[in-house]
Amino acid sequence: MLGVKILCVGKLKERYWREAVAEYEKRLGAFCRLEILELPEARLPQDPSPGEIKAALEKEGAALLEKAAGVVYPLCIEGRQLDSPGLGKLLGKAMDYPGQVSFVIGSSYGLADRVKLAGEGISMSPMTFPHQLARVMLCEQIYRGFQILGNTRYHK
To answer: In which residues is S-adenosyl-L-methionine bound (predicted)?
Structure first.
C-alpha cells in the first residue's frame, strides 16, 4: 500500500478544518497509509523584513525536507497545474513502485526555494488559498485521485 505523507507548516486552528481533514483521513485509510505531519512555523516579528522571511523559510524548509520521504511534491503557485485525473495518474504511477510520496504545504509565506527544487512542484490553482484550506483541498484531491483509479462514481 502506498505511503502518502502530507507535510504542513502550521497547525489547523479551527475545528471545522480539523474535522474536514479527519473525514478524508478516514476515507483514505482504504487506499493508502496516510501520515499528516504538522511542523511549527518559524517565529517572525510583527512586520518582518524580506531577510527575516527568507531565513524563516529556510528554517522551515530544512525541517520539511528532513521529514520528506519518497517522491516529493511541493505545493507552490509556480508548480505544474494538474487536473483531478492527472493527480490520479500521479498516484497510480507512484503505486507501481511501492514506496512513498510526500506532498509539502508551506506557511503563509510559502516555501523555501530548496523545497520547491526538491521535487516536481504542483499548483492547485493560479489563485492563492490559505494553507489550512489547501490542506483540506489536497486531502480531497488525493481521495478523488484514488477514486478515479478505482473507476468509482465519486468523480463525475
So the answer is: 75, 106, 124-129
